[in-house]
């Protein structure tokens, strides 16, 4: 009659313990991978937003900050304040697009002026997209304050860095941010309340 003698090289209890430990390690590894994946997604989004919300900065606060000519923004690192000031304050070659009509002044326009109601037609109507660095969007009426602002209209503007909202109506940066859809983190967003004819800002 055969008797089962314990195998010194193969311990069933130790093997069972190892399998149990291995299962726990797999679970921990899976949790770590999920955490890393979640954090990397949050970090990527955080570089474009602050605490999950789009940031629209008051233009006056940017220009009142004196210094090296650069400022840290919520998205793509450092912004050239001096260049922004030139684009906003000095006369530039520009495109004006209102009520379905585009008028270009100058050879290589760097500025585009438009309003909320014209955003839907920009991609098809503006031909000089390559050189545009800043878009000034006028908010002229109380109904426009609460209109959806679809930034997909600027997806084909390769050198666009700044989107500047000039409102003749009382509003806040949060209100503007809450109406923005299709945000792209290459854009720095600004706003200013300007009573009167905002097209001349």
How many strand units? 11
The percent of residues in helical segments reads 25-40%
Amount of beta strand: 15-25%
Could you tell me the mean pLDDT? 77
Q: N-to-C SSE series?
A: HEHEEHEEEHEHEEHEE
Overall morphology:
elongated
Structural class: alpha/beta
Query: Tell me about the biggest sheet?
Result: 7 strands, mixed
Number of helices: 6
What order do the helices and strands come in, and which of them pair?
Layout: H1 12-46, E1 57-58, H2 59-64, E2 70-72, E3 78-80, H3 81-89, E4 94-98, E5 101-105, E6 111-115, H4 122-125, E7 134-139, H5 142-145, E8 149-150, E9 162-167, H6 173-178, E10 180-181, E11 188-193
Parallel strand pairs: 1-11, 4-6, 6-7, 7-9, 8-10, 9-11
Antiparallel strand pairs: 2-3, 4-5
Can you summarize this structure?
With 201 residues, the protein is α/β, with parallel strands linked by helices.
